[in-house]
Amino acid sequence: AQNDGIRILNNHIHENGGQGGAGGGISLCTGSTGYEVSRNWICGNFSLGDGGGIGHLGLSHGGRIAHNNIIFNENFNQGTTVSGGGIFIAGAAPNPAGGLSEGSGSVQIGGNLIHGNLAGVGDGGGIRILRANGLDVLANRFLPNAWYGIDIFTTMIVAHISGLAGGGIS
Questions:
Q1: Burial bucket for residue 141 (CB in 10 Å: 0-12, 13-18, 19+)
Q2: pLDDT digit of tens for each residue in the chain (170 aa)?
Q3: Nearest to 65 by CA among 45, 87, 82
Q4: Which terminus of the chain has a smaller tally of CB atoms within 10 A, N or C?
Q5: Alpha-carbon distance 70 to 114, whole Å?
Q6: For residues 39 and 35, what is the distance between their CA atoms, to the nearest angstrom?
Q7: Three-class SS state of 146
Q8: CA 8-108-127 angle, 5° bins
Q9: Backbone phi and psi for residue 141, each to the nearest 5 degrees, phi listed first
Q10: DSSP 8-state class, residue 91
Q11: How far apart are CA 69 and CA 62, in angstroms?
């Protein structure tokens, strides 16, 4: 996908649902380079997949999630492990299996209130990071400044539940 420069600003994203992809409220997939999700209320969304509130899946460089209220979102699927009740950021699964992911690209998460989210059978009630790196490290083994990074700063991460590990962040 070539969905560069998406801006999702000043919205009330409430009581939406997803049946298996990433993101019950907002879904950002491979090719969303330079996206911005800012100053939104993302509340009460549900997903059978990863990311109850926001799901970032695949390689998208330079994402920014800032100054949002991400509250009371949930994901749950009794048949499989799903993670990231509030925010899920992950590189796509490697192809072929057992190889390295392309990674997620670098993402900044800053100035948010992430509160009361649930990952019912998975990791990271508030935030789940998975496969952020892979081929970027292989290509730049001795240049860590060239690796993708997930920066989380000045964010309140409060009162989350996860079914496995990392109630706040995994």
A1: exposed
A2: 788 999 999 999 999 999 988 999 999 999 999 999 999 999 999 999 999 999 999 999 999 999 999 999 999 998 899 999 999 999 999 988 889 999 999 999 999 999 999 999 999 999 999 999 999 999 999 999 999 999 999 999 999 999 999 999 99
A3: 87
A4: N
A5: 5
A6: 14
A7: helix
A8: 90
A9: -50, -40
A10: P
A11: 21
Residue-level length of the chain: 170
- In the chain, % helix, strand, coil (3-state, to 5) comes to 5, 35, 60
> What are the strands, taking DSSP E only, across the chain?
7-9, 12-14, 17-18, 26-29, 36-38, 41-43, 46-47, 54-57, 63-66, 69-71, 74-75, 87-90, 107-110, 113-115, 118-119, 127-130, 150-153, 156-158, 161-162
| Token output for 92 | 């796509």
Phi, psi (degrees; rounded to nearest 5) at 2 = -120, 80
My answer on whether omega of the bond before 96 falls inside 30° of 0, hence cis, is yes
Residue type, 63: G
Task: Give Cα separations from 30 to 7, 13, 166 (angstroms).
Answer: 15, 22, 26
pTM > 0.90: yes
* DSSP class of 44: S
